[in-house]
What does this fold into?
Amino acid sequence: MEIFVSAILGELASRSINFFISKSSKPKVLDMEQGLQRALLRAQLIINEATGRHITNPAMLQQVDMLRDAMHHGCYVLDTFRYQSHSEENGKDQVVSHSLSLSSKVIFLKGIYSSNRNTLLLQQLEDALDNLSSMILDMKELVVFLMNYPHMYQEPYNMHLLLGNCMFSRQIETELVVNFLLDTQHRYHGSEELEVLPIVGPAKVGKSTLVAHVCKNERVQDHFSKILFLRDHDFTDGDLAKLREGCAMKHQNCISNSNKHKGWLVIVDLVGDLNEDAWNVLYSSCKQLMPSTSKIIIANRSAKITEFGTTRALHMKYLSLEASWYFFKTIAFGSMDPKMHPRFAQVAMEIAKLLDRGLIGVNIIACLLRDNFDIGFWCKVLDFWRRLVQKYVSKFGVHPTVLMYQNKPVHLGRMTNPFEDLVLYREYQRFSHEEVPKIRVDDVVYGSVEALGKSEFLAWDSRIPPYYSYVFTCEVRELKRRAAKRKRSTENGITLC
It folds into this structure.
């Protein structure tokens, strides 16, 4: 009887704390939530207008980029606040109590924790609203100046279609590269040296995508007579004489029907390292064959290429968690409003936190969820990724995608079949005109496709330049039944979501 009373008193204490906190702060919370929502809409209008124009002023670009970051952060804070109640309800279901006495203590402590968390979220809401509101006030002059810049496109898009078919959140980097290519004022008079811009960044950060978008820019295409692409296969032979001959042959094949008075743009887009000897051969060949107004862009993961640059390198980084969530949510929900599906939104936030912030992986999972709009399926995906990330972080100290990018074997497993394991060996890119496998990786991981043995599976078909298809060499292995049964029984003993 005493244990029962203790449990009831613990529950009453917890509810009393939450009642008085919510009673005193509810109007303020509601005002801030609505205020932040209005501020986010105003920020979105300004950013949409800026994104659709050819802005060349670096200070304006930086100001728009800062507003975009503040909008992503505000959106993340607002979503966290909206969907926390569903997370807490889910957490209650997962508490395992060995006695009513222990349960009462857990309930009381959870009440304290919940009230502290609410206070913290309230402060974050207030900070996000203040930051965003002050930035919008500072943008008054910028909005006026925006009208002086020409439009890039006039087509109306739904946001999920726009983000799914354009480069996300790279406007400032794009204009920095375009300004470098079009700049003619910083050349020394009579100099024969070619200008070189290094672009450095980790795997799948978007280096090739950025360069491809720049090359499709009308101003860039009008400025150069030809654009020459060099990739890893142009450097694999190791014979520097053949490299020189190859550069000359590419030059001869492209020079026809071109304006010989304009410079060339040479794009060196590499995954592997570029040694100094190969670079010297390439650079000297370009100097001999091309006008002095030609320019070179070299993109690579290694910071060593900064030594080859004649200007400050552009360093690309992964998106912030807030920006990644904004993109993920928009793609996953499509034309649906996440506010109408709070349980789905809460699960989606948990999944987004587990993914790396490369947009290819985010795209794959977001499209998978959109095509399978079922809360049970979403919860299974969440549980699958929790286990996968936990396994690799505890065993190797890194996220599994880090090993994928290094082309090291990664055991993904299969969500729907505990008796089989999917091993990813190597990822490579194919051009849009090349044939790709018909079976997709997510059909094997999350579906019921039968595909024992080694094979190639399609991971992602990019809808934006350079329109690569990402293909994995994989193997589906049959696991020993005893180990698989133990794995399945462990999964069945834990609430998925």
The CA atoms of residues 38 and 203 lie 37 Å apart. The first strand starts at residue 195 and ends at 200. The longest helix spans residues 2-51.
